[in-house]
Design goal:
The structure holds two protein chains of two kinds.
Chain A (H helix, E strand, L loop, with lengths): L18 H11 L6 H17 L9 H19 L4 H15 L7 H32 L7 E5 L3 H11 L5 E6 L6 H10 L4 E5 L3 H7 L4 E5 L2 E2 L5 E4 L2 H10 L4 E4 L37 H8 L3 E4 L3 E4 L6 E4 L2 E3 L4 H11 L2
Helix pairs in contact in A: 1-2, 1-3, 2-4, 2-5, 3-4, 4-5, 5-6
Chain B lengths: L3 H16 L6 H19 L6 H18 L3 H28 L8 H4 L3 H35 L11 E5 L3 H11 L5 E5 L6 H10 L4 E5 L4 H4 L5 E4 L3 E2 L5 E4 L2 H10 L4 E4 L12 H4 L2 H4 L19 E3 L3 E4 L6 E4 L2 E3 L4 H8 L4
Parallel strand pairs in B: 1-2, 1-4, 2-3, 4-7, 7-10
Antiparallel strand pairs in B: 5-6, 6-9, 10-11
Helix pairs in contact in B: 1-2, 2-4, 2-6, 3-4, 4-6, 6-7
Classes of the chains: A alpha/beta, B alpha/beta.
Chain lengths: 343, 347
């Protein structure tokens, strides 16, 4: 489904889509909810409603049928917007739990157990993990540091706000079109009194050299099993330019975003945003509106709006997770340990 | 023939425009400098007593123009003109001394008559030959783009994906020339906040080149698909480095990581004899500023203390450039210092 166009076929396959999930899908499609953590949290909220309102049909078993229902709802969300890695991992976790429900468990107990599982996942993997990462990262932020961040990341924002209560530092926010998420970061940080500098990506080498940036804090959408970081498009550029100048690059990522997929470049698997977001109107437009008209003529011109890119591990100094500071290449180790633990 | 006052007033107008940075295109800057100084030499130097006087006056005029403009192009052109004048002086004075020994029929005036009239006609003869030489310089500037475009087929293959950034007249002509014979694709980095890439993309697509506009943030992501990076530049420095539009440095570094060649199309009037220390280049005076936020976008009250950084240009070291394509041919960055000695004097 094209993000600008919110018509989706709702009834398909087995089971119907829960109204909360319906709303959620529309919010994803219209880019009202952005960011890996926010999308995951919103999904868990909707799934809580789904499980709570679920009743097993007479001739079916709860685990099987609930899983089918869940699949149908997730398929709908996938059509609204491709699932984030954090969302996929959450769904996989819940499905595994549902499958492991012992037989002959009464429905109400099974449901309350599943609801508890969802709640625990949210609490441990997202909220507490965020707090742990913030504590680890606070050790790395010194007095009068200049920290560079890119766009908006909920975990980086949390780290900065928590650390600012103990130490004074300043932040340089780099922003990229078309989403310009850095302005959200700018607004929120200045509301907490953090001194900020704002610049677009073209100013990055200039700012790094003149601004005496001490370290770079980046968020991530996912960490891939071959050590690469999948982040908002532009993250790889920031990491590369910083690395070339010897500035340490710290990626902050909860373990629920680790994923078994491997990728070598940013093009084979990526998400395309709405190309029309690139068209500028008004002051920033040197073409005087001709870009849109040339596009409409359909002659040789396309706009490319990528959503994510892959940062190679050599640019990343270390990854801060709730398990501690890890090198990028430790992702498969963590995944293996977690799968052995069965969580 | 323009009168003295006409020429003086056009020069003053030019200085006015330079001080207010009204002229942005390097080609216009170079051409206007040369034309104005040529007119000035031809018309306004009747009161020059001798050759030294002429040189002194010219140097004064040149430094006025240099001071008005923060750009290297005007400086380049004035230094080239000074070099040309010195060469002409050398060749006429040499001719004068050799006349007594070698040339069988010397011009009667140079031997007879009083000192002042012989000096007078010397200056006139000199200004005449300078005028000729400056005509050649003007022709060189006007044809520089043609010579660059003539090399396009040696560098662009069919089915290649070329990356370019922002707006460059030279690169546009280069790609248009290649598109007449080869079919390839171009990705244009839009280069916000000026978004010059949009204008470039429209011009390219109208020449039947398959064009894609890409945001600055996607440079690293798409670089693995790019075969060549072809960019223009504002100035080429004496060490082979570039002063190019902000955003080019990141592109050049990404290209180096992916082992993609970086080709710079620049005419010789952009080659500057100055070496600039990168720290100095990163100062606000040299980089210029562009509003990152347009007047229609307001910051809230709490954001009044926010510093916004927005350089126009940045320095690219010569190690990141693979090849320069100039009107005199293709050169590697390490060779440029030799070309300097042909164009400029040590001033």
């Amino acid at each position: 489904v094209h993000p600008g166009d919110c018509t989706v076929q709702v009834h398909s396959g087995r089971g119907t889509v829960h109204p909360e999930v319906l709303r959620l899908g529309l919010r994803y499609a219209s880019a009202t909810i952005l960011g890996s953590n926010s999308r995951c949290v919103a999904l868990l909220g909707a799934l809580t409603h789904l499980v709570r309102d679920y009743t097993t049909p007479a001739d079916k078993e709860l685990p099987r049928d609930l899983e089918d229902n869940l699949n149908a709802n997730v398929a709908y969300l996938e059509r609204c917007r491709p699932l984030a890695v954090s969302m996929r991992n959450a769904v996989k976790h819940i499905k595994r739990y549902i499958n492991a429900t012992p037989e002959k468990t009464p429905d109400h107990k099974a449901k309350s157990d599943i609801l508890k599982c969802i709640e625990d996942y949210l609490k441990e993997r997202v909220v507490l993990a965020g707090q742990a990462i913030s504590l680890f990262a606070a050790n790395k932020i010194g007095k009068d540091d200049v920290i560079l961040v890119y766009g908006f990341s909920s975990i980086v924002f949390k780290i900065l706000i928590d650390s600012f209560k103990q130490t004074r530092f300043s932040v340089v926010i780099i922003d990229g079109r078309p989403r310009l998420e850095g302005r959200t970061m700018l607004t929120r940080l200045t509301q907490h009194g953090v001194p900020c500098t704002y610049a677009l990506l073209n100013a990055l080498p200039y700012v790094l050299e003149r601004g005496c940036v001490r370290k770079v804090l980046l968020g991530a959408h996912a960490l891939l099993a071959n050590g690469r970081v999948m982040g908002r498009v532009g993250t790889a550029l920031v990491a590369m330019v910083a690395h070339a100048r010897g500035v340490p690059v710290l990626v902050c990522c909860e373990t629920h975003k680790f994923c078994e997929r491997v990728q070598t470049d940013s093009i084979v698997v990526n998400e395309l945003g709405d190309p029309l977001e690139l068209v500028v109107t008004g002051h920033g437009d040197p073409t005087g509106g001709r870009l849109a008209t040339t596009l409409n003529e359909g002659k040789n011109l396309t706009l490319l709006n990528l959503s994510y890119d892959i940062t190679p591990p050599e640019f990343v100094t270390m990854v801060i997770t709730e398990l501690g500071m890890l090198p990028c290449t430790s992702v498969p180790v963590v995944l293996r340990v977690k799968s052995i633990e069965g969580t | 023939m323009s009168s003295v006052t006409d020429v003086e007033s056009s020069i003053n107008e030019f200085i006015y425009d330079l001080q207010r940075q009204r002229i942005n295109q390097s080609y216009t800057l170079a051409l206007r400098t040369v034309l104005l100084l040529r007119e000035w030499i031809t018309n306004c130097t009747d009161d020059a007593q001798n050759i030294d006087d002429l040189q002194r006056k010219l140097q004064e005029k040149a430094s006025k123009l240099n001071n008005a403009s923060g750009d290297h192009i005007v400086n380049n052109m004035t230094r080239r003109i000074l070099r040309i004048v010195r060469e002409e002086i050398d060749s006429t004075t040499k001719q004068k001394t050799t006349e007594f020994h070698l040339v069988p029929a010397p011009s009667p005036r140079s031997r007879e008559g009083d000192e002042s009239s012989s000096m007078d006609c010397e200056v006139k003869q000199l200004t005449g030959s300078i005028h000729e030489a400056l005509n050649e310089l003007e022709a060189e500037i006007e044809s520089s783009s043609v010579h660059i475009v003539n090399q396009c087929l040696e560098h662009i293959h069919s089915a290649e994906v070329i990356l370019t950034v922002g707006w460059s007249r030279t690169v546009l002509e280069f790609l248009k020339g290649a598109a007449k014979k080869r079919k390839f694709q171009v990705m244009v980095i839009e280069c916000s906040p000026s978004n010059q890439g949009h204008t470039m993309a429209i011009s390219l697509s109208q020449c039947n080149i398959q064009t894609t506009v890409v945001t600055d943030s996607a440079v690293f992501a798409i670089m693995s698909r790019i075969n060549k990076v072809i960019i223009g530049t504002r100035t080429v420095l004496a060490n082979g480095g570039l002063k190019a539009i902000a955003g080019s440095r990141a592109i050049a570094e990404a290209a180096r990581y992916h082992a993609v060649p970086v080709i710079v199309c620049a005419a010789m009037y952009k080659l500057s004899p100055s070496y600039i220390c990168p720290i100095e280049l990163n100062s606000p005076q040299s980089v210029g500023l562009h509003p990152a936020l347009g007047p229609g976008e307001e910051l809230t009250d709490s954001q009044l203390d926010v510093a916004v950084e927005s350089p126009l240009f940045e320095y690219i070291p010569p190690e990141l450039v693979t090849l320069f394509i100039t009107n005199t041919g293709g050169h590697s960055p390490s060779y440029l210092y030799r070309l300097l000695s042909e164009l400029y004097d040590i001033d």
